[in-house]
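pinned: reference chain
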Amino acid sequence: MEPPKHRELKTMLYIVILFGFSFAFLYILSIDKFIVKISRLDLEILQNIQIMQSMIQPNVSQTHDNKMIESSQDMKFEVKEDIKALRKERIGFDIEESSERQKMKRERLKIWSLNKSNLGKRKMKERSRVMSFESKDDINALRKEDIAFDHVEIHERQKIKRKRQNFCSLNKTNLGPIIVNTNPVDILTLKDGELSFVKPGGQWTPNSCIPRAEVAVIVPFRKREEHLGIFLRHMHKFLKVQMIRYRIFIVEQDDEYEFNRGKLMNVGFREALKMHPFNCIVFHDIDLMPEDTRNDYACPHSPRHMSVAIDKFDYLLPYDHIFGGVEIFLTQDYEAVNGFSNSFWGWGGEDDNLYFRVMNVIGHLTRPSLRVGRYQMLKHFDMERYRPPDRYEELRRSKNMKYISTDGLSSLQYKVKRILVLPLFTVIKVDLQKHEDRLFGVEQLF
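pinned: its structure tokens
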């Protein structure tokens, strides 16, 4: 157990240490207060000094401040004036620049439009001259000439516009199903009666407007006199409703060879273009009568098979790749496929071969709907007995791309015996010269 003296000594030691810490704390606190007082005195002294300075030199600071304000105002005024002047200059420059840009734009537009007009070359020369002229008088003179040219150009454009507006349009109230009159008729009585509107050669064109197309109707013919009058009576009325310029060509095979429908079509194409630059060709069998005037005989944009629904086949398409009966071509499309093959003597095969040519060269064809592309077939004796026994084999061999360019319009050989311009049609009597085909390699194809 600790003696009482030791406990007393420890207590005294603790008391001394406590007093020492308390004294140190009070000392530090007094020093901080002294420093704060000194800093306050310093601030008061500095404030008094500033007040004395302001009292001593009041005029100097005021004048200095006034000068600074005046100089800043002068600078602001000068800057404003400069900015206004710059803005005016910029606005003037922008106006001038925009006017120049508009002039350049008008020049480009005029030059672009002139390239499409008949006066383009002449005005382009005048425009190139403008670039080289520096005198205002010369430029003004050229502008006067341009104004004159513009008046001429506007006149030409107005003529073209009036021409376009004057194109014939179909009267839809007159279009639709029609009745086919199959009663025999004397051709000589038609001209003075029902077909008095037809011009010599079997042609007609609307007088009050520009025709929608210029069409040559090519009809292969041999010993079908009983059908000719019925065909002419029906087709002239049908084509007139369509507001097209047309001419009917009867291409008659006048030789001892087998009937060659494809080659007669090629002959009709060549001879028709010699008489007029038709832009559309219709190849038409004489025994097919269209039953709906909505079936448009004007030029399509691609080869078109017209006779898709014939009464003989219950108004249905017999098979997908059929392309016979009635076909329409643009002139350039028919030349592109090299026409019909000249090698199919006898009945059948040439239309299927034409389908092969169209699909491989042009790539597509069009057809009207079964409701519109309706035809009635005139009765005649069966032609099946004239089909060569090896016709299907010939057709299979003909589907070779290398024969398209060598068999057709490019190898066509024939002799025109006579051309008759009759009141209702134009007759082309032709010898197809089958013996000449051997010389040009057509027989060797098969």
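why pinned: The chain has twelve helices and eleven strands. Residues 75-165 form one domain.
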